[in-house]
Amino acid sequence: MMHSEKETEGGQSSADADTCPSSIDIRPDGGLEAWMVVAGAWCSSFCSWGWINSVGVFQEYYEKNILKEYLPGTVSWILCLEAFFLLALGPLIGKLFDRHGPRWLLLVGTLLHVFGLLMTSISTKYYQLLLSQGVCSAIGASLIFLPPLNCIAGYFDKRRSTAFGIVASGSSAGGVIFPIMVSRLIDSIGFQWAMRATALLILVVLTTCNLAVKSRIPLNPSPFSVKEYLIPFKRIAFSLTSFGNILFAFGSFVPMTYLVVQAVSMGMDKHLAQYLIAIVNGSSIAGRIGAGVLADIYGPFNTWIAVTYAAGILVLSVWIPAANDASTITFASLFGICFGAYAALQPALVAQITPIADIGICTGLYFAVSSFSQLVSGPIAGHTLEMSGGSYLEMKIMAGFLCLAGATFVLGAKLYATGYKPMAKF
Q1: Alpha-carbon gap, residue 120 to 133, rounded angstroms
Q2: How far is residue 208 from each of residues 41, 214, 260, measured CA to CA in Å?
Q3: Residue 70's CB: how many other CB atoms inside 10 A?
Q4: Alpha carbons 123 and 120: distance in angstroms, whole number
Q5: What are the backbone dihedrals phi and psi of residue 422, each rounded to the nearest 5 degrees, phi first?
Q6: What pLDDT is recorded for position 72?
Q7: Tell me: the pLDDT tens digits for 307-362?
Q8: Is 217 helix (H, G, I), strand (E, B) or coil?
Q9: Sign of the C-alpha dihedral, residues 266, 272, 277, 280?
Q10: Do residues 349 and 249 touch, judged by C-beta distance below 8 A?
Q11: How far apart are CA 239 and CA 216, in angstroms?
């Protein structure tokens, strides 16, 4: 593993910081307990990002039923808040993890997530749905999302990216199962019982998560300080990586948000178009697992950079000229592979450039700064669409170049961290 000798906060070299984990703990890189943690983290991913990836089902249902008197943009705030809270609370949750470990975070998160969905099942007004699904359930999902990822860093070193890839496949599985499950249950037993059945499934899966996830990382009971939230951004590699993630997250969530709408406007059958997001999430399973294996061979940064450049190129070269069902489905499949790889490798990027004692707060900060991309990418892309008179070309160009820009900033972080050695494994 290559590291530069550039100075970080307090005079410590980045090389010292990166090698710090070995001095704290020798990680087993396998064994029953380690893989049980991976299984528990998979359950967490299934119920957090897997659930968030199903929001398209609710956008359509709310617009046509419970909230039909509201504009689509107003309805979308419920769903945007879910993704925002999932990531924005990262620094706080990371600090709590560093001080107390994962146990209580997972328990409270499970209760809030399930309670929020049960309250959603009896909600009939906009503010009720906003508070129950957009706030309560989302905060619970955030509490169960980050702690298992941090725990994996204490069990794996050489096989870390593979472990993260397996965990990330849980969100793909949820992104396929939840949209189909919820839509079919709403048609057969109604919205209220569909939400209750979903809450029961999530409760069962998260019970497994609570039982399986453990941490080997020593607690870091330092008092709260604003300064400690700023220190990671003084590390150039971390700052470049975080900013690159902001740009790529913004660009990549444009097709995730508008792929179905654009396909229908192009003439695709509505029933077929509803499966596009499931296709993206389904194909992302291969990207998530495959990226983890490749990252252990070539390095997480090298793999992340390659797949994010590929995603930007796909948007510009495949999505823009897509003019029929076959080309749109092809784009959904290929983009899903790249998007899955991108999502799977994010924790590995942070772990590569962060001392393990700070893994909780740094992972939280990394995800938190990208939460604003989740919050505003859809509305800004929609405004671009309106300004262009309904043409999707400008929006697609914006998305493609943002993906490429994000990849370029992370490439800069890799070059800085390796002493400007482009071929180094990192």
Answers
A1: 6
A2: 9, 12, 34
A3: 15
A4: 5
A5: -65, -25
A6: 65
A7: 999 999 999 999 999 989 999 999 999 999 999 899 888 888 888 888 877 777 78
A8: coil
A9: negative
A10: no
A11: 27
Per-residue DSSP letter, 391 = -
Which are the contacts of 124, defined by CB distance < 8 A and separation ≥ 6? 66
Cα dist. 407→204, 240, 338, 360, 413 in Å?
Answer: 38, 10, 12, 24, 10
Rounded to whole angstroms, the Cα distance separating 173 from 283 reads: 10
Structural domains for the chain: 11-21+29-417 (1.20.1250.20)
Q: Which ranges of 48-136 does DSSP label H, i.e. alpha helix? A: 49-52, 55-64, 72-88, 90-100, 103-121, 126-129
| Alpha helices in 299-358, H assignment, sequence order | 300-314, 325-352
Given this model, what pLDDT does residue 274 score?
A: 73
Residue showing tokens 């998160």 = 109
DSSP classification of residue 322: -
Residues of the chain with pLDDT under 70: 1-27, 56, 59-60, 72-73
Tokens at 417, concatenated: 């961290």
Q: How far apart are CA 98 and CA 76, in angstroms?
A: 34
CA distance 294 to 342: 12
DSSP 189-214: H-HHHHHHHHHHHHHHHHHHHHHH--
